Amino acid sequence: MIDLVIFIIVVLVILLLATFFYRKNLFKRLDGLEKQKANLKDVMVGDELEATGKIKLNGESFDKFNEYKEQYEKITNSDLTSIRSDMSDAEDFLNSYKLLSASVTIGDLGDAIEVVDGKLNDIHDGLSELQEVDSLHRKAIEDVDNTIREINQQLLSQNYSFGPSSDKLEDKLSTIKGVYEEFVAETENGDQNKAEELLGKINNLINEMNELMKIIPDTYVSLSKEFPRQLDEIERGHRTMIQTDYNFVEDDIDDTINTLKESCQEGLKSLAELDIPETKKTCTYIEETIDSMYAIMEKEIVAKRKVKKNISLVYDFIFHAKNQNRILSDELEGLSKNYNLEHDEIENTAELADKISKIETIYNNDYDAINGNKAVYSVIQKHQQDAKQELSSIEKQQKDINDSVAELSKEERVARDSLQKFDLQLLNIRRRIDNLNLPGLTEDFLERYDYVYNEVSNLSASINQVKISMDEINQKLANISDTMDHLLSDTENIVDSAMLSERLMQFANRYKNANEDLNAACAQAKDYFDNRYQYEKSLATMAAAIEKVNPGAYKQMETEYYNEKKTTK
Predict the structure, then answer these.
(1) Dihedral class, residue 304 (left if φ above 0, else alpha if ψ from -120 to 50, else beta)
(2) Ranges in the Cytoplasmic compartment (predicted)?
(3) Is the pTM of this model over 0.90?
């Protein structure tokens, strides 16, 4: 029972402590809200309303001001009164320990104060903007007035530099002044939105005016002085060139000059109307055409110097190419009596002669044009460049043809030496085979021997004709060389196999009576040797049999044979 009482007392103490601290916290929150309320900008906004009310406002700006005023009055007469009442209620709840009611009221107070603070800030910002716009517009009145005075002063003092554009520029300035007067009136009247719109229009007009006044002077100078001066210079230069024997492919310079003079007048007209895009287009056309005429005249002046410098060089080049072609043609004519020229050397040389003749014809016509004062030097310069390039190609082709036939006699000597070598090789093959006293040779070997022999004979007949074809002879040489290599290799195999096979048969005699397998191998090898003339098979049969009877004996005999062969060579 005592324990229960103690438990209840402890619980009560805890509850009392919790209530105390919770109530204390609520008082603290309420104090904080009172400070927030004290920091609200209601007094400041009231002062701003009074100050802004002294500004003359009209139209949408006036409507905004009234809206801000109504919002402020609602806040002071309703929202703030309600907040003060709720604060009083919250304090009463706390004093009477109605903590739950106090907590709800304090929470609502926080939200209400935050809302009021946001509304007051919006009103403050709006009023500040109205005051700032009014201040900016009043300052702009002075700034724009100064700018207009400066533009007007510039138009008066530099009137000559704007040429025919002066009247239209004056009109534009009058337009700016008219809009400025509207702007001043609307500013004084307090219609900030209308004034802001007019101020933007004024700034655009002033920017456009400044841009025109920056562009027009240089453009006017170009159209009225610079372009006409250049055209006069071109006209004099062109006249002088014609008088000093210059000619042009299509001489329309005088007509173009007249056209450009008219374009200058058209450009001045569009400039007077302030049609800057059209004026720029005209100026660009005039400038580019003038540049092209300067370039045409400069091209002929430069071309004349180069033509004069190269006239003798091109002549020498043509003369040299003609002489070389004549020498080459004579040489080919002589060679054609002894050789078949099978790569169109004579025809190609004739074509080169025709090309040289055409180049010479053009050169002669150009030379006559120069002497007759009818030369278009840029055209002649192009002819000279083409001639030098083509003559260089012709001389290279002449050299290639000459080099190709220059080797004919050397090729013939090489062919005759090769023929002699083939005769000796055939003779040597026959001698070596005969010296072995072999029982015979295979049909395949004899056919190859006869083929090579006949080819060598045909080569001899071809090379001993009065007029020979080196292409044909070189082809036969290549065929014989390949076949001869195979025939020499086959001959070596026959000689080596036959001699080694005979040595192995003699060596095998010492074992014949004691080894039946060896006797059979000897018989088989002898059949290959005497009857079939297959000396390699005979050697292979004997080598295999002797290796079984006396391992290593064949390799030793083979080594001794090739060593003897090296010594006897």
Answers:
(1) alpha
(2) 23-569
(3) no
